[in-house]
Amino acid sequence: MKVYINGGFVDEADAKISVFDHGLLYGDGVFEGIRLYKGCVFKLEEHLERLEMSAKAILLDLPMSRQELSDAVCEACRVNGLSDGYIRLVVTRGVGTLGLSHKNCKNPQVIIIADKIALYPKEFYTQGLRIITSPTRRINPAALPPMVKSLNYLNNIMAKADAGLAGCLEAIMLNDQGYVAECTGDNIFLRHKDRWATPPSHAGALKGITRGAVLEIMEAEGIACAETNITRYEVWTADEIFLTGTAAELIPVVEVDGRRIGSGSPGEQTLKLLDAFQDRVTRDGTML
Ligand code: PMP
Predict the structure, then answer these.
(1) Whether residues 155 and 214 fall in one domain
(2) Is 76 helix (H, G, I), strand (E, B) or coil?
(3) Tell me: the pLDDT tens digits for 79-101?
(4) CATH code assigned at 51
(5) How far is the centre of ligand 1, averaged over its atoms, from the C-alpha of 99 (Å)?
């Protein structure tokens, strides 16, 4: 595998950054996870826009323009001979001193890894996921806005560990008011009767690109979905739940905290939305 780093492609084994990079020392940087479907990079513009906004929010000047980043992402797929895969685009703050100040870091590093995709096992799409609510809270929006996709994922990692300890693959994270924010690496949607709901970003949800694509599909199909605060009670008593994410696409949830959701099988509307989503993945893509 060839990895883009520092303006060029190098072998995987040579893809290294300094131990003084603040990305490593402090989790200081931003990233994107992007999908490649049949030679089309899904929603590349949206991902690059989110990366730019994340970088702006943390006072990080991206060293490449939108077009340069877009070209480098496509090139990383071509160089690795991929037509389907997962792209990780990372921008670290770069080398600095051992102090916290970002001002000492003059050269942000752009890293692009284009690889095959590791999905949730297939049976979870037909049988649904069991998840729990993690005791680890989503980071407070006043501390770090959830819209920033930063390299600081430690609390998500702790929540993912909570899920694993309970024998699950995902966990719901609540915000510090106790409302549902999202899952450790996925957004969440739920249905009560004919109304869908998903937490707003101010409740602690990342503005997921997949979440946005699903909201677009819902709007086009005339399906009402509110961005609103959601309690655990509303989760436990939902008729349908699914999660969205770049890697997961739409994945049904059939049990939360030991409570069966709906009939205990993936919801009918969830499966229809998954179909509609899969229809779009090449249509809304940037061709290599
Ligand atoms: N929330 C978090 C915390 C994430 O890391 C991600 C991305 N894996 C998502 C939601 C889903 O966002 P997207 O649809 O852009 O992948």
Answers:
(1) yes
(2) helix
(3) 999 999 999 999 999 999 999 99
(4) 3.30.470.10
(5) 30
Q: Is the pTM of this model over 0.90?
A: yes
Cα of 193 from ligand 1 centre, angstroms: 26
* Whether 52 and 159 share a structural domain: no
**Ligand 1 binding pocket mutation candidate from 147, 169, 180, 186 (most atoms within 8 A of CB):** 186
b/e for 70-96, b at 16 or more Cβ within 10 A?
bebbbbbbeebebeebbbebbbbbbbb
**pLDDT per position as a tens digit, 233-255:** 999 999 999 999 999 999 999 99
Number of domains in the chain: 2
Cβ-in-10-Å burial (0-12, 13-18, 19+) of 288 comes to: middle
Check if 246 has its Cβ closer than 6 Å to any atom of ligand 1: yes
Using the 3D structure, point to which of 81, 115, 149 is the last residue of a domain.
115
Cα of 11 vs centre of ligand 1, distance in Å, is 28
Beta bridge partners of 191: 196, 240
**What pLDDT does 120 receive?**
83
Which of 53, 82, 115 delimits the end of a domain? 115
